[in-house]
Structure formats: C-alpha cells, structure tokens
Backbone:
C-alpha cells in the first residue's frame, strides 16, 4: 500500500509523517524505517524506528531513489513500514517521473508486503491523476 501526505511547504506534512512513524512503531509486528533527505528528524522520531538520510548515500533522482528503497527492503525482510519525507527534494519536481516512481514502488510494496508513506509538497490537483489509481491520500 502507498499513502501520500500532500500539501505545500509549511502545511504540516512532516508533523503528520512523524505521527505516522510513531503510530507504525506501536502497531507494527516488524521494523519501521523513516527516510529523509538530510538528518533533521533525529529527536522527533521514536528511537525504535530506523532513521536514514538519503544525502548520506548521495541519492539523487527517482531511479536511484527506487534502488535505495528496494535495497532497504531487501536488506531486512522484517520491515513492515517505510515512511519518506521530502520526496520531491530527493527525486525531483517532475510530476510525471514521480508518477512512474510511485507505480514502481507500488509493485515493490505488493510483492514484498510493505507499507509506504510519502510526503509530497504539492496539492492533489497538481499531480497526474494516474497516481491516485494506486496511491491513497491521508
């Protein structure tokens, strides 16, 4: 399953994501991973979540981002939830590339039974409609 937290800068997406991470930790029977662009959430996310910064691994663009997420899933089969902040800053502001990326992550999610949550700094109307065929807005 893929869920999106939408809204422009300052709309509370990151706070909502932090609440989702902390809730997932309480309900998951496995491991929870929080991915961010740079290390900013260290004191906000429960210590039981694995916090990973993409800048530490020089992840740029959606192809590298997908490979990174697939590697995280391959490296630990006990992961149940992967929550990602700053999706457009890691990938790009190309909304069609975002749609392709999310569709690939959707397949990864289904094959490996993982839940993904992404923050996206955009309104629903700005994004391609195809995204909402496999993503839900929370």
Residues:
């Amino acid at each position: 399953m893929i869920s999106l937290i939408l809204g422009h800068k300052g709309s509370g997406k990151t706070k909502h994501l932090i609440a989702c991470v902390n809730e997932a930790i309480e309900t998951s029977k496995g491991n929870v991973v929080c991915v961010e662009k740079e290390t900013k959430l260290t004191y906000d996310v429960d210590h039981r979540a694995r916090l990973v910064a993409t800048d530490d691994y020089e992840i740029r663009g959606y192809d590298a981002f997908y490979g990174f997420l697939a590697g995280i899933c391959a490296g630990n089969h006990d992961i149940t939830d992967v929550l990602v902040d700053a999706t457009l800053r890691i990938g790009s502001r190309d909304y069609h590339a975002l749609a392709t990326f999310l569709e690939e992550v959707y397949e990864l999610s289904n094959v490996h039974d993982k839940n993904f949550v992404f923050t996206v700094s955009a309104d629903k109307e700005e994004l391609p409609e195809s995204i909402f065929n496999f993503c839900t807005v929370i």
